[in-house]
């Protein structure tokens, strides 16, 4: 696809979780298990799925902080010569990602400093420009990060990401630690910046209403796989995969985070992967045909799912 900026094909990633006395790995945590994903230029791609399904592992992989065990990560359409290779990340807790000893103007321009060693004067000017863009008062730039409120710190983290002129910003729960009113301000800021700078966002969130509000497309993750992907409207309003349906049903109020979903959405172990469809043990639609692995397959041009019964489930309204 011409506007495809980033592509992951059949990516697997496992963390060693247990070793024997010889140091040999005897058990793995299977965090990503054949993950397929495309990211289009200029879009916001929302990623949802319950705690432990591999969202942050995916984010770290995209950022080059982890490498795939097997599978392909195609970043060839991103500018390799920019700090971060055209990608920057904003984390849930800004304070943990900001050096507490540095004044924020240094923090904001650190990616540029590492890449180009530009002069202090140039960096200060850049920090002031970015501070203005994200709504931080330039006269506060000499203060350390703990002198700012949570929302202000997240603005600082966003400015820092922007300093590297990324094409893609990976936003891992960017507003989850903030009060509701502050959340809305940060989300609005992100929308404005995206419009001004033609940014592409990968937005990871537990919160369905945040994803619905922000995303052009959504990918639903379950046990290290994308089980459903497509335009936000189709995926969230007419889900084709039983897991997505379960997620939507477990969100009685729009502002309920998925992470606090009811007990029946508990993730099976990712140490011993199920055979066949990963969702089989919890799926009300399961039958013998589900004992084979399910590929991500196209339902329409803008909707794909990992369930062979999807058409039937949609036709019956999922009941
Ligand atoms: N460095 C690591 N070593 C071992 N296991 C890990 C490591 N990082 C993540 N995991 C495991 O991989 C799985 C996926 O974790 P990940 O952090 O990607 O989930 P997540 O979807 O981001 O969850 P949350 O919504 O709680 O942030 C989990 O079982 C986690 O315990
Ligand atoms: S393949 Fe079978 S078990 Fe898996 S989601 Fe579809 S109906 Fe359920
Ligand atoms: Mg996470």
UniProtKB/TrEMBL annotation:
Residues 6-248 form the ABC transporter domain. Keywords: ATP-binding, Nucleotide-binding, Transport. InterPro entries: AAA+_ATPase (IPR003593), ABC_transp_ATP-bind (IPR050319), ABC_transporter-like_ATP-bd (IPR003439), ABC_transporter-like_CS (IPR017871), Oligopep_ABC_C (IPR013563), P-loop_NTPase (IPR027417). Pfam families: ABC_tran (PF00005), oligo_HPY (PF08352). It comes from the Bacteria. One of its GO terms (molecular function) is ATP binding. Coiled coil: none annotated. Belongs to the ABC transporter superfamily. NCBIfam families: oligo_HPY. This is ABC transporter ATP-binding protein. It comes from Scandinavium hiltneri.
């Amino acid at each position: 696809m011409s506007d495809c900026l980033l592509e992951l094909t059949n990516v697997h990633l496992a963390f060693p979780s247990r070793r024997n006395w010889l140091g040999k790995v005897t058990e793995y945590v299977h965090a990503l298990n054949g993950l397929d994903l495309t990211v289009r230029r200029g879009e916001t791609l929302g990623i949802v799925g319950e705690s432990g399904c591999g969202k942050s592992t995916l984010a770290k992989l995209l950022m080059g902080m982890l490498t795939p065990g097997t599978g392909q990560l195609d970043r060839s359409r991103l500018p390799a010569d920019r700090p971060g290779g055209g990608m920057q990340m904003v984390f849930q807790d800004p304070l943990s990602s900001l050096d507490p000893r540095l004044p924020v103007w240094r923090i904001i321009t650190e990616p540029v400093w590492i890449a180009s060693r530009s002069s202090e004067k140039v960096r200060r000017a850049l920090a002031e420009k970015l501070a203005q863009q994200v709504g931080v008062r330039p006269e506060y730039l000499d203060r350390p990060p703990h002198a700012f409120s949570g929302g202000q710190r997240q603005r600082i983290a966003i400015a820092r990401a922007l300093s590297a002129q990324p094409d893609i910003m990976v936003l891992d729960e960017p507003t989850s630690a903030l009060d509701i009113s502050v959340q809305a301000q940060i989300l609005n800021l992100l929308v404005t910046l995206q419009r001004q700078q033609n940014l592409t966002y990968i937005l990871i969130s537990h919160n369905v209403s945040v994803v619905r509000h922000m995303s052009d497309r959504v990918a639903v993750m379950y046990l290290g796989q994308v089980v459903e992907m497509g335009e936000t409207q189709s995926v969230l309003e007419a889900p084709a995969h039983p897991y997505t349906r379960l997620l939507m049903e477990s969100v009685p109020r729009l502002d309920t985070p998925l992470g606090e979903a009811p007990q029946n959405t508990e993730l099976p172990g990712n140490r011993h992967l199920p055979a066949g469809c990963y969702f089989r043990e919890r799926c009300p639609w399961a039958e013998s045909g589900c004992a084979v692995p399910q590929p991500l397959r196209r339902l329409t041009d803008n909707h794909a799912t990992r369930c062979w019964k999807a058409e039937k489930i949609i036709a019956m309204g999922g009941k």
